[in-house]
Amino acid sequence: MSLFSRDRTRVTVEEAHRRTRGSRASAVVLDIRERGEWDAGRAPGAVHAPLSGLVAGAPLPQAVQGRPLVVMCRSGNRSRKAVALLRARGADAVDVKGGLQEWVAAGHPVVDGHGDDGSVA
Questions:
Q1: Which residues are catalytic?
Q2: pTM, two decimal places
Q3: pLDDT score, position 1
Q4: Element (H, E) at 121
Q5: Max Cα separation, the chain?
Q6: Which domains can be identified in the chain, with CATH numbers?
Q7: Contact between 50 and 32 (Cβ < 8 Å)
């Protein structure tokens, strides 16, 4: 059984935050932005899998395989494409409306690779 209904492909930032935070998180954030964007900042606990790699057929990182995915990019455009691709592969995935920009606007943290305050690139 999937966490997200098959006809539901998008979630709000608040639902994404609720489903991916804490020790009992039901889903994981999959950040599909490219390396430079990822390095600038991401949601805490996010796992990186660039869309370019997924399109080229790269497998999902081991840490997210078999888990419900909340897919995030900068604004929500690329994540919609990624969700269609991931669902075609059988993944339980939704994208976040407004992406990381909306995440920050809602007051949620963004960190860099050192755990310091990050930025949205």
A1: 73
A2: 0.92
A3: 46
A4: none
A5: 37
A6: 10-105 (3.40.250.10)
A7: yes
